[in-house]
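Quick review question:
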């Protein structure tokens, strides 16, 4: 009887605790939303901490009452598991870009023509400069979060996303659907970024380059307790419903629904019409850009009607109903302290301007490539010059122009060297006279190092974790000297090295082992044959099917292969007739590297089928890799050199010798806008 009475008393206490826990969770979530999203707290920090402490105490007393959506579960826990891959329910597509008013007019015209309606309604929103993620909610509870990845498959970062206080673990509101997907951007607010770097500086820790890098680095921590300590924020920009009780008709109503669920969105989104409405919004945001609490890198325009979106559909990896209006590349003035040269993996000698540190687009820039001797002379850059610098495609630093009016009498003219700065071999100019080159091959330590880095890179053998720093370390410790040595590495050797723990050594060995399953095309690209890029490597693999057949092929037979000209044929022939290099290839295969057969992509569009392109210069909005992938996705080829077989040269700013050769050979030269039109990415 006494036992029954005690049990009854304990159950009463538990029921009471459960009610209090539920109340506390609602209170904490409400106050968190007001603090982290609305920036309008209604409690002092002491009061909030008191509520939170009470919740933690009750959950400790009754651990069976802890649920995944409880605010106490945001703290983050250490895990040694690498990120799992997650296939998106719907592809997370990238956006096409517009850069000028003419591009914007072309976008609007195409949309109106295809829909057959004038004055299409658009939603205009800032383009957050962060890391895109997808959140899945079931029964109102946050169950899965993933990065964008390649658009089809992302990384499971659920535990890390749960630490971000502006992401609700449980949705509020009425008529919550059984399942929704929310897409948005993880960012770090400017003030939080500055405080984080200030704290890191005090602790003598690494400083982040900009808020985007800080956000991306924080979200991709294996240990989610580290993420929990980083001040990350989240803003949603779209919602997908998997049931129709809300009957969404427009994108703007979707944003309203997100707000109803207490999911943060931008308060700057606006519905407008026509090009003048879009341009007016763009101009407005440009004026207040520097005052915003977060970084943005452009404006996104979306057709507001979801029915119209469905009608317009998609092309390649981009929706036809949306585009990004990118801001012009930011420029800054700085001083050229020195000019030096670097040796590339194929022996190319590249002049590099060493700059007085300057912030460009939120990133400190200290170096800028000058590409080659012709480019150096064309831009007339001297040591001691003041120059304008920008980051091409917001990535690669480049000198735009010399500020001649500031040139002093003390400037020094830089002359290209006559011998390799590393191995002291005589330098030779390529046949087109554009590139100065060291011909000492792998006997030149710089070429050997760059060749090994290239071999391990993502588009080659894809050995995750074997980047420049680790390659340097392995070379210095005499653990690797050639490609095949990578596959001889043992865990026991790695754990003896500085910065290598048991787990990191194990992960690298696994990555090396995994790389043994590759394709012939990737392997040919990986070994770094001069003038052989990804596209040519794939052509060789598809045409010959084996290394032995390539070796047995004459120069004339190579030249007969579509899209392989005399220059490339000569490079391939010389490489495979060099017995030491061929033995090196066989040595890699002897380590267990095997080639998988890949299925031809029969789904990709063929607008550019059979056409060969060469890219040169800096395009206004597309990065070099984006332009290349766009061409490849339409069935076209991209090569590194101009020949009579080239159909188009896509030229941007500061195009060099490739443009000159195109004009000489009467090859058609087009700009970015014309490329986008060819690929049906804009226009009709």
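Suggested answer, residue by residue:
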């Amino acid at each position: 009887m006494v036992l029954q009475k005690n049990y009854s008393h304990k159950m009463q206490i538990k029921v009471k605790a459960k009610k209090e826990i539920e109340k506390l969770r609602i209170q904490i979530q409400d106050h968190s939303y007001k603090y982290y999203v609305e920036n309008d707290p209604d409690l002092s920090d002491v009061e909030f901490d008191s509520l939170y402490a009470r919740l933690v105490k009750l959950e400790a007393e009754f651990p069976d009452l802890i649920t995944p959506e409880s605010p106490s579960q945001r703290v983050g826990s250490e895990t040694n598991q690498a990120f799992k891959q997650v296939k998106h329910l719907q592809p997370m597509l990238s956006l096409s870009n517009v850069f000028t008013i003419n591009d914007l007019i072309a976008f609007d015209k195409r949309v109106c023509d295809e829909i057959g309606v004038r004055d299409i309604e658009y939603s205009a929103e800032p383009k957050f400069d962060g890391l895109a993620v997808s959140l899945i909610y079931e029964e109102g509870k946050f169950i899965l979060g993933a990065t964008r990845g390649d658009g089809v498959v992302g990384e499971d970062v659920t535990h890390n996303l749960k630490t971000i206080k502006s992401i609700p673990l449980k949705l509020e509101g009425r008529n919550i659907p059984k399942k929704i997907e929310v897409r948005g951007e993880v960012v770090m607010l400017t003030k939080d970024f500055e405080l984080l770097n200030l704290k890191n500086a005090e602790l003598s820790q690494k400083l982040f380059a900009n808020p985007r890098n800080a956000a991306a680095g924080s979200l991709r921590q294996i240990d989610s307790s580290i993420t929990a300590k980083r001040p990350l924020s989240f803003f949603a920009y779209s919602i997908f419903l998997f049931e129709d009780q809300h009957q969404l008709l427009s994108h703007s109503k979707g944003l309203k629904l997100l707000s109803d669920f207490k999911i943060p969105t931008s308060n700057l989104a606006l519905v407008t019409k026509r090009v003048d409405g879009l341009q007016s919004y763009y101009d407005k945001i440009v004026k207040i850009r520097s005052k915003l609490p977060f970084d943005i890198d452009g404006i996104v325009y979306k057709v507001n009607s979801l029915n119209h979106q469905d009608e317009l559909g998609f092309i390649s990896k981009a929706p036809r109903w949306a585009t990004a209006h990118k801001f012009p590349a930011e420029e800054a003035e700085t001083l050229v302290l020195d000019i030096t040269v670097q040796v590339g993996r194929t022996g190319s000698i590249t002049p590099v301007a060493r700059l007085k540190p300057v912030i460009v687009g939120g990133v400190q820039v200290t170096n800028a490539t000058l590409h080659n001797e012709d480019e150096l002379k064309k831009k007339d850059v001297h040591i001691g010059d003041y120059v304008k610098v920008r980051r091409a495609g917001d990535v690669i630093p480049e000198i735009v122009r010399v500020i001649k009016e500031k040139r002093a009498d003390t400037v020094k003219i830089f002359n290209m060297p006559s011998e390799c700065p590393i191995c002291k071999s005589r330098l030779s100019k390529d046949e087109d006279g554009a590139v100065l080159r060291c011909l000492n091959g792998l006997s030149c330590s710089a070429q050997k190092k760059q060749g090994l880095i290239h071999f391990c890179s993502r588009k080659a053998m894809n050995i995750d974790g074997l980047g420049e720093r680790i390659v340097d370390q392995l070379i210095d410790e005499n653990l690797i000297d050639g490609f095949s040595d990578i596959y001889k590495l043992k865990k026991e050797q790695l754990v003896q090295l500085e910065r290598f723990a048991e787990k990191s050594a194990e992960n690298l060995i696994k990555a090396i082992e995994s790389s043994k399953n590759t394709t012939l095309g990737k392997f040919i690209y990986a070994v770094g044959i001069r003038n052989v890029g990804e596209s040519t490597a794939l052509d060789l693999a598809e045409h010959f099917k084996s290394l032995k057949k390539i070796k047995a092929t004459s120069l004339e037979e190579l030249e007969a292969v579509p899209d392989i000209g005399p220059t490339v044929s000569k490079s391939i022939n010389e490489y495979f007739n060099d017995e030491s290099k061929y033995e090196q290839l066989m040595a890699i295969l002897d380590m267990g590297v095997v080639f998988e057969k890949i299925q031809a992509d029969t789904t990709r569009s063929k607008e550019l089928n059979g056409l060969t392109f060469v890219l040169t210069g800096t395009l206004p909005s597309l990065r070099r890799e984006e332009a290349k992938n766009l061409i490849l996705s339409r069935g076209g080829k991209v090569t590194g050199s101009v020949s009579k077989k080239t159909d188009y040269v896509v030229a941007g700013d500061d195009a060099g010798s490739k443009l000159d050769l195109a004009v000489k050979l009467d090859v058609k030269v087009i700009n970015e806008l014309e490329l986008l039109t060819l690929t049906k990415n804009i226009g009709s």
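Why it works: Residues 321 and 525 are 36 Å apart (CA to CA). The two ends are 85 Å apart (CA to CA).
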